[in-house]
Amino acid sequence: RLRRRRARRPELTGEWEYQLHQVQRRQASRAQFMAQIAEMTRNIVARAKQFEHDTIPGDFGALGVPCPKCGGEVHERYRTFQCTNEKCDFAIRKALSGRMLDYDEVEKLIRERQVGPLQGFRSRMGKPFAAVLRLNADHVLEFDFGQGQREGEEAAEEVDFSGQEPVGKCPQCQHAVYELPMHYVCEKAVGKNRTCTFRSGKIILQQPVDRVQMAKLLEHGKTDLLDKFISRKGRPFKAYLVRKDGRVEFEFEPRAAKGKAGAKSSQAPAPKLDFTGQEPVGKCPKCKGKVFETDAAYLCERSQADKRPCRFKIGKLIAHLPLDRAQAAKLLAEGKTDLLDKFVSRAGRPFSAWLKIDDKGKVVFEFPDRDETAGS
Asked: Whole-model pTM?
C-alpha cells in the first residue's frame, strides 16, 4: 500500500513553521528549506511511480477459461481481469458504467464472447440501462444494445433467423417474431428492405420479459402481472404488458374506487402478513420484536399490529445491492454488516460501505476512511 501519512503529520507542519521562522530571522537559509521540500516531493513522486496498484493484497485468483487472445491464464487483479502473459494486452475492467462484473459473468463472456443482457449499468446522466456485453473481433469489450440500437449502424443489416423457433406472430404484419440478444423483433423489421417496425425489449424498465411472457403477449394480447418494473424516478411498480395498435404498452391494475365527494377515500387495508412457522432473522432494534423476511424487505412482526404498528424495516435492495439474509442477520445482531462493495450511487458510481443501525433505529451507510479506500 502507498503510504502518505508522513506528509499529513501535524508534527511535520509544525517543523516547517519552525524552519520558516528561522528563515525569517535569517537563522537558516531559504535555499536549504526549499531543498528539503524538493527532496521530499521527489521521494513521494518516485514512490508513486513505482507503486503497482494491481498488487494490492486480496483474494484474487485465475479464471477457469483461457485468454481469448493468446490462450494464457486470465487472473483477477484489483481493477481488471487480465491476461498474465506479459506480451498480451488482453484485459477487462471490473467496473463498467457503474456496475461491477463478477467471475461467472466474465468467464461466460470470454467463453461465449458475449453475456447478457445484464442490468445495473448507469449512463453518464445517472440513468439505469441494460445491455449485452460482447468481445469484438479484436477481443475488446463493448456494449451491444441489440439489433438497430447502436446509432442505427445495424438497422439495415440482414439477420439470419433460419433454424430459430419463432416466439409468435407480429401484431403489426402477422409475420414471425424472433428473439435477439436484447429484443424480440419481427422478421420484417430488419434488413435494408424492412417493412415493419415491431420491436420489444427483453428488459423494460429493469423488468426482464422472458420468452414465455412475450409469447403470451403476442398470442393473447397480454402478459401476466409483472412486478419488477422500476419507474424513471426509482419507484417499483406492477403492470401488465399489453398489445395495443401494434405496440407494447402498460396496463395497470384497477385502483380502488373513490368514495363520495368530500368523504375520505376508503382504501381496503393491505392484507396482514402471517409469519407463522418462519424463522426470525433477528430482533427489531426499535421495539425488540422479531424481524422476519418478506419478498421485498425484512419486517418487524409488530408492523402488522392494528394499533401503533412498528415502522422498522430493512429493504432487500439498497442502492442496487441485494442484501442477503446473512448480512441482515448480522446487521440486527451486531448493528453493522460486513463492508459491502457493490453499491451504486444515483450518479451511477460504484462505492463501498457498511450498513449500520443508528441511534434512531434507522439503517444508514457508514463509509470507509479515505485512507483505507486509497490504499486497499
From this structure: 0.41
